[in-house]
Amino acid sequence: MDDILLADSQLDTEKRRLLGLGALSGFLAACEQSRTPLRENEGIYAKGSDDATGGVTDNASQNVAEVNSVGVDCNCTGDATPPVPPAAPGAPAPVAGPVNIPADRFLSLRPESVTGNRIGLSSGDLMGSQQTMSDGVPINVWRFTASGQGFNQDRPVPGPTIELIEGTPVELIFSTMHPHSIHLHGLDVDQLNDGVPSTSGYVVGMQIGGGGLPNGRVVGLPSYISPHSYFFTAPQAGTYMYHCHVDTVLHMEMGMYGAIVVRPQDGSLNRLWNAPDSPQFDREFVWHLHTFDSRWHGLVVSDQNTARYNPDYFLINGKDGVDLLTDPVTVLHAIANETVLVRAVNVGYMPAVISLGGIVFQVVSSDGRPLSRPITTTGFMVAPGERYDLLFTMPAAPPAYATVNYLNIRGQTISGGTATTLIIAV
Amino acid sequence: MKRREFLKAGLSATAVVTIPGLLSLPRRADAAVLDYFIVVEAVDKPVYPTMQQPVIPMWQYIDSIVGSQLLELTVTAGDIVNIILQNNLSVAVDFTVRGLLEGSQPCLPGQIQSYSFVAPATPGTFLFYDSINGELGKAMGLSGGLRILPSDGIARLYDGGPTYHRDHLLIFYDVDTRLNEAVAAGNVFDMSTYQPNYFFVNGITYTPSQHVELQMIVGENVAIRFVNAGLIYYPMHFHGYHVNVATRNRMPEISVIEKDTVLVKISECVEVILPVSQPGLYPLHSHFVPAVTNNGYYSGGGLIMINAA
Whole-angstrom Cα distance, residue B188 to residue B69? Predict the structure, then answer.
């Protein structure tokens, strides 16, 4: 871990780069560099992407590109309200439009957050999706993207954060060429919309078998369809996740996951849940906790190679190593005395112990439900599949580093298994 | 009683092992004296009951009266339980119930040793295992779960605790076949390299035609007792439902209660109440997804199905 700690002088330079002259303008600039601009009218898939569905695409998925509401315009300035997209002909009228998310708060979430009542996701896999790690090694990944936006070259994984409002009906339209599904983890949807091939009766995408690629170890005779709509009601406000549930052991590890943030019923962006006693926060971060085992990332189907998992990359939000020290969606940055929320989402296979350099924080909710009694601590473990919401007050002079220590599935420390990022008070 | 139903289901090779769960709780005036004649044997366990291969060399507590593995023990509060252990292995073993019966005399190879305890007056879930061989005994299969039911007929997890309509006991263990093969060959295995490749719940690894399926009815509160008799963490994720964590190692949970993913650490017993809020067929599985495979092939391992009518 020592090789990624910055010397004091380097730290100062890094802080200045991120902070500008004490304002948040540096973050805005960093965010600008880390995202690709929206491509509103280029059709569903960016040129050169492997998402082209050829004959599978029909008009329904064409319109998906128009229904995604992204919470901020790509210039990252001001309080621009994205236009409410027109509904496809014959589609039910959308319920009250997208929430106006102020730009500087939105910066803390995954840049490609998608919100609204009709959301389109696509998948990219098997060709041309690579995540370059901090050591320069490109890793093959499979990922979800927001339909109509191509994919983020800089950060293919994790997938877009889906932002919803508690109690609203949602249609999630998924288009893909290869066999995949979306399991809405923790949302307690019904069997038909649960995204499990053997219980829902279908897989999204095309069955590819015979002389071609394996069909993702799907048992039985589900239907293969694309696009496919998942219908559900956004559950109790809190933090959830989604991931592919076809040949899950491999597809999930390859990167097919993302976070779901459900806002309180009034759509407020600074409260965790509805009740008047809900904690409030000034700044919000989503931390996807995950690892890669690079040996798995050349596989196309689960087999004896996926019997044992030995991660060699330890990530937060798709970044690792030194890249985490300059990642504007991971570095915990706030004005001194602000309340900061970290939504920890373990989309990986390793328990993860979060420490904020000694800052005392409160664990207030988990799996979309408030804790009966908040936990006050300086270190907390998030097991695979769990989510925890952590709150702390940014001190005026915070410790420099926050760490995520990944343990193996026996609860033992992994040598080199720590992801480190910065804590910065303005 | 439940054991025999389980055994019958196992003999029917293509049957899903549907577990209705204990439904009625008789009231007992007098404590029973229960004798279990257990033989500790080296066995070759077939991974799939319908197939002769692969087999895993294991050590098991065998109930010599019933003729099958003693994996689950259910008694009533106040019962006197006598485990008469006959050791047919070449190493010493014992019978330990974590938190209830510890520090007993070992049972030497070829000998018979008696282990007795009184089931506590309060209900609860315990882990039993061999403590003489450290982790190796558990890794070879000497472990299981003990459930203590209340004696007054009122179905509850602990005195003053949540009541339930149905009761399911789920016992997890995992196997690293490299270890078992080393032990069978008389070689040493470095436990620090332990990485299991087969995973069992109630002695079964998931296949579409044979797996554990928990029956329940919408509107019920269902008690689910997880016993981690294995050597890895089991973060158990429920599809379709949130549950209320009631106890961890018989201590009432006061903080992290309502969950869709419940971590069961090594040697831990966790009891939850599932309010069955909707019908359907839903998976329940570890989110360390390699534990949902059979030697890496998905799906398999410790995958459980919930069937709510």
Answer: 26
